Amino acid sequence: MFLSAAAGSGSVASTTLRRLSVLIAVSNDEFATDEAAPIVGDSDLAAQLGAGSADDEHSCLRTIGMSTIVTGASGLLGRAVLAALSVDDSFRNVQGWTYSRPGSVQVNLTDGAAVRSALTKAQAKFIVHCAAIRRPDEIKNDEQLAENLNVRSNEFFCDYLKEVPDGFLLYISTDYVFDGKNPPYGSDDTPNAINKYGQQKIAAEKFILETLPGKSAILRVPILYGPVEYLAEGAVDEVLKALLNNPPNKPIQLDHYHLRYPTHVKDIASAIALILRKRLEAPGDIKGIYQWRADEQLTKYDMAIIMAEQLGLPHEHYVANTSAPSGGDSAARPHNCCMKTDRLHELGAKIAISFPEGIRDLTEHVK
C-alpha cells in the first residue's frame, strides 16, 4: 500500500521507492553507515541500483538498514552463525565482529566506548553474542579477562539495546551452568555451576534477563564441533589431535566418565536463525531461556572410537577411563548436563546432523 500510493508523487520519491523495493527484495547491506567496516552481504547492489543516488534517498534507505551483529565471528560457532544468517533473507546487514581478524569488523568487546561506537555506526538491532572465553582451564588462569568478556561485555550491549525499539540480544550460554548431578535439566531449573566458566555464564544470564526483560533471550548449548580451522580449536577436535599425535598402538587413556551431547555448529546456527526469525514474527513470544543439543550421548572415548573408524585407524589400544576425576590442576567438569529442549522443539527446531555424519568435517581436515 505504501509503495504503490507514494510511487507516483515526484521523481525523487519515485526513484527512492523503486530503490527501496530493490533493497528489500535482495536483503542487502550496501547502505550500512560504517563504510570502513566490512559487512557480509551483496557487494554488487550499487551496480544493480545505478549511480547518482541523492543524499536524501541514501538517508531514506539507510533508515531501514538495521544490522544484525554476530560477536565471536571468527570462532567455531560464530563462523557458522554468520554463514547461516548471511544467506537468510530475513536478515539485513549481517556483521561479523572479531577482536583482530582482518576482513571483519574489529571490536574490543571489553571496551565499552568502542562497543557503543560500533553498535551505533552499524545501527544494530539484533545482537547474537557468541564471543566467550570458554575453556574452563583458560578461565582458571585469567579469571578477570574472562569475567570482562563473558559477563561485563553484556552491560554494553544491554545499555545500547534499551534505546533501540524492537532491539534484541541473544546470549550464547552453556550447559555447564548445571552441576551434572540431576539431569535432565529444564530451562527453568536452578543452575548450580561447579567451575568458573559456568558461574560466569550464570551471572551473565541473570544480568541480561533482569536488565533487558522482554528484549533478550539465552541459548544454552553443549560441547560443539564442526569445520575447524586447526585441530584443537574445539574440545571434540582436541580428542582427534590426541589420537593423531599418539604413537601407533601405544595405549591412550580416554575419558569415559563425563557424558556429553556433542552438537554440530550448523545445527546450533539453524536454531539461532529460527529464534531470530520467530522474534521478527512475534517479538513478545521470544524471550527467556532456550536450550539445544543433539540427542546422542557420548563420552570422549565414544567419540574417539567413531573418529578412528572414520579414519580407518586401529583403536584396540584406546583405554576407556571410567573413573571420576580426583581433583588436580584442571577445572572441574560436570558429569552429565543433559538439557531438556522442549521450547525449541515447539518452535520447530530440528537436529539434522548425527555425530558420525558431522565428524567428517574433522576427519576430512586431516586427510
UniProtKB/TrEMBL annotation:
Gene3D superfamilies: NAD(P)-binding Rossmann-like Domain (3.40.50.720). Residues 66-365 form the RmlD-like substrate binding domain. SUPFAM superfamilies: NAD(P)-binding Rossmann-fold domains. One of its GO terms (molecular function) is methionine adenosyltransferase regulator activity. It comes from the Eukaryota. GO terms for biological process: S-adenosylmethionine biosynthetic process. Pathway: Amino-acid biosynthesis; S-adenosyl-L-methionine biosynthesis; S-adenosyl-L-methionine from L-methionine: step 1/1. GO terms for cellular component: methionine adenosyltransferase complex. Regulatory subunit of S-adenosylmethionine synthetase 2, an enzyme that catalyzes the formation of S-adenosylmethionine from methionine and ATP. Regulates MAT2A catalytic activity by changing its kinetic properties, increasing its affinity for L-methionine. Can bind NADP (in vitro). Heterotrimer; composed of a catalytic MAT2A homodimer that binds one regulatory MAT2B chain. Heterohexamer; composed of a central, catalytic MAT2A homotetramer flanked on either side by a regulatory MAT2B chain. NADP binding increases the affinity for MAT2A. Belongs to the dTDP-4-dehydrorhamnose reductase family. MAT2B subfamily. This is Methionine adenosyltransferase 2 subunit beta.
